[in-house]
From TrEMBL:
SUPFAM superfamilies, per the entry: Glyceraldehyde-3-phosphate dehydrogenase-like, C-terminal domain (SSF55347), NAD(P)-binding Rossmann-fold domains (SSF51735)
Organism: Phialemonium thermophilum
Domain of life: Eukaryota
Domain Gfo/Idh/MocA-like oxidoreductase N-terminal: 26-148
Name of the molecule in the record: Gfo/Idh/MocA-like oxidoreductase N-terminal domain-containing protein
Pfam family, one: GFO_IDH_MocA
């Protein structure tokens, strides 16, 4: 693929990409033209036109294809309803998979079959069988899986991981992600996304059938918990909103030893208590009607507290901030709020994706890494199964 200017650190501390000296632009095929592609992915690929060009779109909705094709900067992209056609195209170097969760693995396997790197929106999978299929397919492919847990690429989070790594001993950590209606943030994003319904009942039933098969595989066969409406909703929430939190938690404090308790009250807000080697971690997650975005990770040591605050990613340019509170001298106190960049996590994620594809760097948010999220889903659901998930469905 040739060499390119590597990722660099700007004078203000923001991570960015220098001049693309050999002109290598990755041609992108997007599978899924729904909300996240309209609000985040297509605009960001357009902004990064020195690195990416959208050349192909795929969706079951012709209206969505027509709408999104008009949003693409540069030459009009080809469009198709067939994912294989997109993945096999010589006009596509990398594939973004951002359609319904039930199709992520199947279309990831298609991309790998055709030796394409694929950025798969979270959750990459909800069961071990499916993530293992991707890991196995990578062994015979020139492509790799890059999972879209973008919060882990935020500069403030990367810095926080380093700060926590320098602590003598962690005493406690809190992970919180309690947000208001997502539609509130989407409607104020300035991207004016649209929803379409020109797809068949057969398409709807196929998705539902696939989802039910995944629930059966994950909940009944792998996790050993009842398959009920509550357990299915909880697995969906953990795979959606929860993946961001649990994946970042793993990176900053590692994997827990066990779940000491789980109050899986959903709809609403649920809580989990993780036990680590010598310290607890509380996890609070859920959705309510207050239009705010309360997401943070906070890690405590005896003489230092490190916190990362996230805002909604649907409004571009909102800063992600690290706050460090620490003891100074015998009785002193210091608080530092650090915002190195306004570059959003989606953009920073794409910089790293580009680096992985062009320079052969291994993705840190790989399929193998994401398998640990599924282990956490299993631990949480098993801990709350008896009291909160109900009796097995008939």
């Amino acid at each position: 693929m040739g060499s390119v200017q590597p990722l660099t650190t700007a004078a203000n501390g923001a991570t960015g990409v220098g001049e693309n000296r050999n002109g290598r632009i990755l041609r992108v095929g997007i599978i899924g033209c729904g909300e996240i592609s309209q609000v985040a992915h297509i605009p960001n690929f357009n902004f990064l036109s020195h690195l990416f060009q959208i050349t192909y779109l795929c969706d079951i909705s012709q209206q969505a294809l027509e709408h999104c094709a008009k949003k693409v900067q540069g030459a009009p992209p080809a469009v198709t309803v067939d994912p294989e056609q997109l993945c096999s195209s010589p006009e596509v170097d990398v594939v973004l998979i951002a359609n319904a969760n039930a199709y992520h693995v199947e279309h990831g396997l298609l991309a790998l079959k055709h030796d394409k790197y694929c950025l798969i929106e979270k959750p990459v999978a909800l069961c071990f069988r499916d993530v293992d299929a991707l890991i196995e397919a990578e062994k015979t492919s020139k492509g790799r899986v890059f999972v879209g847990t973008m919060r882990r690429y935020a500069t403030a989070f990367v810095d926080a991981v380093q700060e926590v790594g320098g602590m003598s001993k962690v005493q406690y950590s809190r992970v919180r992600d309690i947000i208001g209606p997502n539609a509130t943030f989407v409607s104020q994003s300035g991207t004016f996304p649209r929803k379409f319904d020109d797809f068949s009942e057969a398409d709807v039933q196929d998705r539902l059938k696939r989802e039910e098969a995944i629930f059966e595989q994950a909940l009944r066969h792998e996790f050993g918990v009842p398959v009920t409406p509550k357990s299915k909703r909880m697995l969906q929430l953990l795979g959606g909103l929860g993946t961001h939190d649990l994946s970042a938690m793993r990176e900053i404090v590692g994997m827990p030893q066990r779940v000491a308790g789980a109050v899986l009250t959903f709809p609403g807000i649920f809580g989990v208590l993780f036990e680590y080697d010598g310290f607890p971690v509380t996890y609070e997650c859920g959705i309510n009607s207050v239009p705010q975005f309360d997401a943070h990770i906070e890690v405590y040591a005896a003489e230092k507290i490190v916190r990362v605050d996230y805002d909604t990613p649907y409004v571009k340019g909102l800063p992600i901030v690290m706050t460090v509170r620490e003891k100074i001298g015998e009785d002193g106190f210091q608080e530092r709020k650090i915002r190195k960049t306004y570059e959003d996590a989606y953009t920073l994620e794409l910089f790293d994706f580009y680096d992985c594809v062009v320079n052969g760097k291994a993705p840190k948010t790989s399929a193998s890494d994401a398998k640990n999220d599924i282990k956490l889903f299993q631990m949480i659901l098993k801990a709350g199964a008896d009291r909160y998930l109900g009796a097995p469905s008939s």
